[in-house]
Amino acid sequence: MPKLIIGLVGQAGCGKGTAANFLKENYQAGYIRFSAILGDILESLAVTKTRENFIKISGAVRQEFGEDVLSYAVERVALNTPEDIVIVDGIRRPEDIVALEPLPQFKLVAIQVSPELRFERMKKRGEKAEESQMSWEQFQKEGQAPTEVTIPSVMSRAWKTIENEGTKEAFESTVREMMTELGF
């Protein structure tokens, strides 16, 4: 059972993946991505992994099996991970932390970034099929999707909020400071 489970919450392009990669590389953390469960479903159905399709499958699964169904699935995976530190990436809704929040080893960490910088970073990374071609208007519209509008309320419940407005090195230094604070 892990000694620490770090849940990452923040809007698209804020640096959750960067923080997770840093923790994996420097602290040998295990990694669970909320959307991986949904991605597996899309892949099994031979449906393209677009942001819109992730939103659709998320809504369908939650509607049919309960808003907190993914929280319990992620909790099960996290508790069975052999690493001492486990990163849970992509928390978006209050229901996503229903199973995790009561765990004594769980720490929710919010990552805050301006919308303009998030948009710039998303276009560069091209993680989802349509991101590199996304317009500012599309970016703003996607920020109003059901999977996105609840993020700020979840961020307000975080144990710690990290600003990610500067360089990658500065951000990683802040993450390292957080880990020192947590005793690692």
TrEMBL record:
Pfam families associated with the record: AAA_17 (PF13207)
Report which superkingdom the organism of origin falls in. Bacteria
Q: What's the protein called, per UniProt?
A: Adenylate kinase
Read off the lineage from the record: Bacteria, Candidatus Uhriibacteriota
Q: Gene3D superfamilies in the record, alphabetically?
A: P-loop containing nucleotide triphosphate hydrolases
Where does this protein come from, organism-wise?
Answer: Candidatus Uhrbacteria bacterium CG22_combo_CG10-13_8_21_14_all_47_17
